[in-house]
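Fresh eyes needed here. I'd like your take on this protein's tokenised backbone:
***
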Amino acid sequence: MKVYIETYGCTFNQADSELIANALHNGGIETCSSEEEAEVVLMNTCTVKGATQNRITYKLMNLEKQGRKMLVTGCMAGANSDIIEKYAPSASIARIQNIAEMPSAVKAISNGHRSVYLEERKTDRISFYNAPGSVIAKIPLSDGCLSSCSFCETKFARGALNSFSEQGILNAISYSVRKGSKEIELTAQDTGAYGIDKGTNIAQLLKRACEIEGDFRIRVGMLNPEHMHRYMDELIEALQNPHAYKFMHLPLQSGSNKVLASMRRGYTVEEYLDIIKSLREHVKNITIETDIIVGFPGETDEDFEETINVISEFRPEVTNMSRFAARPHALASRMPRLSDQAIKERSMKLSRMVRSMQAYANRLLIGRSVDVLLTEENDASINGRDDSYRQIVIPKTGMHEKPAVGSRVRATIYNATSNALYGRIN
């Protein structure tokens, strides 16, 4: 029997798909690389954005029409199982926390039986980890979070915080490094909440991870600012280690304190800017990535201008922008919404400013020589990351000898756009 796993959403979901594949393998079930050769299609779903949900429901509907055997897991299974049943009534459903039951569910599906596993439980899924032997290893840290953001539905999918075993995570990192991984991506719904339920934290984990022997870099995934006061000094110290990318993904979401309060984000703009100031003072060449939601319910023109002003003030190296979209279950879905036209106009204004700002900052790097860890390759280029986690694109044109993915090279930046830097190997 063969299973095809189709993954939607973030790095966290991608890491979960690897764990699912390992759980299936332990149960004697083989995974395959194409839907056509599979007896069962396993969909690991996302519920963060409406557009992604629409793609998933369209796929579910088509698979249902084809009479395909399906197991649906991930965030939609946890938060919106009713939507799955609407578009694919024959599909089996399992929350991601029920990973141990998935081999049994797949076998039952193969025999024509539908299974539903929607029990909320705490499982230490890191026990299913098996190093992929690839350059990049994605390692999940926990389920759930400690926040109660009014726009978020993921809390309903993942539940309360359940941090995985610190020793299990460290073993996974060490094992991955021994199998050849050079970039370790620590991922979770909120890496900043990791360990708070067990008397530890992400800073302590990162410090211990950096003590592992080998040639690798660690990237810490998205961290909510509300937790930074718990371990700020420890985290700064850990980020100074050569094994750690000088990188932090800290979502701001809005530059208006009124909107942040309505979002239930748990910090003020001033507190956020103090965090950024400390990081930049103590971690040389750190890259700051942030997120902004445009058009949150109740956001006035003045609130939006405050966001523009704050972004202009601290000038993050990367800004991810999304237009507000109501999600089922989330409190903000019941708030009066702005017009689509207002949201569109604001998002266009912010997008133009961000592209211009990022392009200007990247052009200042032209002529600089940097160390690059090569992590991926396509027909046109070999791409990698410098120590600040900036993407470096190295075109193959004119390359005398192609370096291997996973190796390190010294490259000089010769061109830049708002999204990437282009380098030539020295």
Notes: The mean pLDDT is 94. Residues 340-363 form the longest helix (24 residues).
